[in-house]
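Narrative progress, year one. The postdoctoral researcher (J.K.) led the effort to move from monomer predictions toward full complexes, under supervision of the PI. The following entry was the first complex the group processed end to end, covering 432 residues in total.
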Amino acid sequence: MEHSTTHACLVHPHPLECEAVAEWLRRRSYIELVGKCNSLDQIIQLPYLKEVDIVVVFAHHAEKTADQILKIRKLYSRLKFLLLAPSPCAESVREVIRSGVSGYIVFEAELDEWERAIRAVSEGKVYYGQEVMLKLAESSLETFIQEPAPTTRDFLSKREVEILRLVASEYSTNRIANELCISDKTVETHRRNLFHKLGVKNSVGLTKVAVRMGVV
Amino acid sequence: MEHSTTHACLVHPHPLECEAVAEWLRRRSYIELVGKCNSLDQIIQLPYLKEVDIVVVFAHHAEKTADQILKIRKLYSRLKFLLLAPSPCAESVREVIRSGVSGYIVFEAELDEWERAIRAVSEGKVYYGQEVMLKLAESSLETFIQEPAPTTRDFLSKREVEILRLVASEYSTNRIANELCISDKTVETHRRNLFHKLGVKNSVGLTKVAVRMGVV
DNA sequence: ACTCTTCTCAGGGTTTTCCACTATAAATTT
DNA sequence: AAATTTATAGTGGAAAACCCTGAGAAGAGT
């Protein structure tokens, strides 16, 4: 059964965003929005469900939602699903793909990725976003490679991490020396070693590394 | 200072919903949307910030966001904030109120509550949603006080943001001066002003602010 | 006109950071 | 046992950062 236009239904848990996104979808020419609701549970009760081709689902719990989608697909195999969810972890991404969604992108996707996804799904194709593909690749690599990537932290000694933390906390060399009950010169030496190990030229550089490493 | 129309800025982490909600807001007659972005950190860089009266913030972590709002309010005390967040717990709700937001409602709020909230805030009033009030009552009998924005100082100037960026890029004062074709003394003065405006004591502090702001 | 802010620059100072090189005891690894 | 790494500490010096003060010009706002 081919429709001339694809009929879509939107699911978003928040009324305002549901309405707002619905409006946005209504302005797309390649699909026609026939309904919206705030929960996936509600869609099988919708009177216009038989007209729906695509369900666009916003959900914060990808796995739980994938599970629901799988159940619904067993009853209404005609329905296609485009899932919008937070950035997935390597485990959940396989669960979601297994549920048979036609599209899966992250909330943070840019508008053009959105357009591509919704067009692809409405044309009967499949679309997975960049982040999803990445996690998928990552999860399949895990089965082949057990080698844990050496972290930057292993490279630094405990003391050095401590110094790094204090430097990035706006402490002066003198203050750090007092705090740790060691000589200023020792602190200076540690700091200098950190420069070389981390390939930066001053404390500002150290601070950025510290922020990236999460020690502050 | 009264504007004839209230100027709003939208913050939503997800590009699509940001765009969609922005469109919805543009159709409200009582406010005028002048800008949008995906992160609260970005707003102080916006060139049109001086025109903004209200910032409508969608955020998943209410407390973290409240903290950011408090900091921003210390620099731009003129700004009003309407916060949209998940249902709060009894502890976080006080933190959020204390941050001085003018409005606070949950994502799941119905459209009419939305309308009431945004109207109230744009008229200079305060609006807390039903769920928020409930949690507030539940949390305590003690008085909650909104944190006053202590400084009347306005936002960072363009030049200051530029200096901030270069400092956080590990540039020395001298190098910055050459880069911008101004005197070292001028750069020093800017840097010192940044210390005071941002409440930090050295370049390491500036760097952390810069990272948080996303200028590096 | 007057105020406020920004951007600019300077003198003259103190403190901190950064560099180069050396060095020793302790712990860890090989 | 020997070699390496870590943590400690030093001398001495150059560079940069930081502090305080003052001040003129340009521009925006009241």
